[in-house]
Amino acid sequence: MSAAVQISVVVPVLDEEQSLPVLYAEVRETIERLGQSFELIFVDDHSTDGSLRAMLHLGAGDARVRVIRFRRNFGQTAALAAGFEFARGEVVITMDGDLQNDPADIPLLIETLEQGWDIVAGWRRDRHDRVWTRRLPSWLANRLINLVTGTRIHDTGCTLKAFRAQIIKNLPLYAEQHRFLPAMSRSSGARVTEVVVNHRARRFGTSKYGLERAFHVLLDLFTVKLIAQFSHRPLHYFGLFSLPFAVISAWFLFMSTVDWGKLSLHHEWTRMMGFVVLLFFMLAVYFVMLGLLSELAVMASGMHRRGVLERVVATIRGPGDRP
Predict the structure, then answer these.
(1) Which CATH architecture has domain 7-230?
(2) How are strands ordered across the β-sheet holding 7-13?
(3) Cα Rg of the chain, angstroms
(4) Is the dihedral of CA 139, 141, 142, 143 positive or negative?
């Protein structure tokens, strides 16, 4: 059955009991119309309503429905990572379980993927969410993520995406990093694009997200920047942190040399300037040493060699190579 599955649809679920039967029917109708085999993977993030019962009921009636349940609530990123781990399809589709993502967009995602892309992200251009608590924070987060990672995606928070399985299964995924998947994949050479998708108003329940997630996104952004662009050269990453401290230290040292000719070594201003120079110089040295230790850790882990192998698309045999 594993080899026969063409499309895996991964849906993280948290208290979406009423939405699940409707979502299952829409996904089944859409993909069956394509004429491709599929599996629908529900990942229960320890729901407290009847969601698990609804998923098991759907699975009992259709062997293509698979259910994964967490022992406790771990979050959407962990749910997606579990779905990726157990997915058997050549193409992996991710979507929310609240019916705001439209399964009717799945054919568009797959068609775009078949044009040569590795990841196709959905863009909810016309969102049906509250402006101040959802749309505005999302707009600001998208601009910041694009600025830091260099990935030109309008809607990084949209769960509706399509991935080639070999791309998504090789990505480390934890914390709140599901929104950074295009950026993390792009750093390894994956071809990423986006398409406009339909966004529907919520029919059942309430949103599970609030403004408090903005802080977590900001912290994870620094982690993703390190993983996506500096995982094979961490010294460059920590060197960027050390540079401002080195510049400030040099500036204070220059100012000190200008004033030391006029002031006594025991003058309070002179002592303070010397302390500031030493403090910022030690901070610069600290980040450089941290980068060197990271380089040793990367070298010991063999990540440099794996990075080379990940960049190889195929090997070409020469006339003298043995089969």
Answers:
(1) Alpha-Beta Complex (3.90)
(2) 65-69, 38-44, 7-13, 91-94, 161-164, 119-123, 192-196
(3) 25
(4) positive
> Are the C-beta atoms of 22 and 34 separated by less than 8 Å?
no
Going from N- to C-terminal start, the domains of the chain cover 7-230, 234-311
The burial class, CB within 10 Å (0-12 / 13-18 / 19+), for 249 is buried
Two tokens, residue 47: 């729901």
At 303, the amino acid letter reads M
Strands 161-164 and 192-196: unpaired
239: left (phi over 0), alpha (psi -120 to 50) or beta: alpha
172 secondary structure, DSSP code? -
Tokens representing residue 83 in the block: 């779905």
Q: What is the pTM of this model?
A: 0.70
Contacts for 218 with CB less than 8 Å, ≥ 6 apart: 144
Residue 305, classed as helix, strand or coil, is: helix
pLDDT tens for residues 139-182?
Answer: 777 777 777 667 778 888 889 999 999 888 877 776 567 777 88
- Distance separating alpha carbons of residues 11 and 66, to the nearest angstrom: 10
